[in-house]
Amino acid sequence: MDEITQPDPLGALLKRSEVFEGAILECFPESGHVLAVSSPQYEVTAAACTLCVEHAHVVRAAFTVNAPSSASAVLRLQYEALLRSAWLMFAATPAQVEKLSKTLDLETEQAAKNLPGYLEMLNVVVKVAPEGLAEPLAEFNRYSRHALNSFVHSGIHPLHRARNGYPMEIALTVVRFSNALMHFAYRLLATLSGSQQRMDQVTRIYMVFADCVPMAQE
Hints:
Layout: H1 9-25, H2 40-64, H3 68-90, H4 94-101, H5 106-111, H6 118-128, H7 131-152, H8 156-164, H9 168-193, H10 196-204
Helix pairs in contact: 1-9, 2-3, 2-4, 2-9, 3-6, 3-7, 3-9, 6-7, 7-8, 9-10
């Protein structure tokens, strides 16, 4: 008798997510992202976007090695990387940008400690960033911040999941949220490139991959 194979929706979504990112990357030159302006602001914003994308890779990798709580913790870091990039692009002052763009040493590390934190960045981003970016950042914060902070600090959420299992539906949601954050990071990188065609391509590409992002669940 042939063995009955159980469906693997998480594995399918992870593979589909890789294809989604590959399609986004095709919108950029083979050499990687390009900047329309050579400035500290653009460079450090691009670095924050790249960090957001890096975290997306780690979220997917964590699920492949059965580490869902680690994936959830990294999703929190990924969100803050995107928030930081939005703040740098639309809200940071030249002096604040300078603090984050200088060569890292003890002096610059100390100077950066008085920069805005999570909620302070979010409050100003919501006021000045484009609504299409500001509203998803605010919504993610409203519904996900406390639970994801629990995973970062080994609180009740990860302890409960470690004892009782990690539901498939939550795993799928985490991957889709991570994909959405990644997509916004690439959209910002497209904006930094100065190419309207690239911006349009990257912005609309999620329509072909609606199964990979939270919008498909609405």
